[in-house]
Amino acid sequence: MIEEVSTEDKINKPKHYNAGKIECITFIEDQKFGYCDGNAVKYICRYRHKGTPIEDLKKAKWYIDRLLHYEEERSK
Fold it and tell me: Measured between alpha carbons, how far is residue 30 from residues 1, 18, 38, 51, 68 in Å?
């Protein structure tokens, strides 16, 4: 029996990070997003590809809610 060897680089290029024409991190860095908005974008970008869509969308919402809180506090 021959075993298939995965050539996926799970550290540098996991499949769920490389589903489109550009990596999500490239977009986040280009737009100079901060921690919360960058993480929200990251989870939204990968929610259909990682196999845990509801969990990833909830994580994105958590970061968006936190970002909203910061912005509301800043605008007082």
Answer: 47, 16, 11, 27, 22
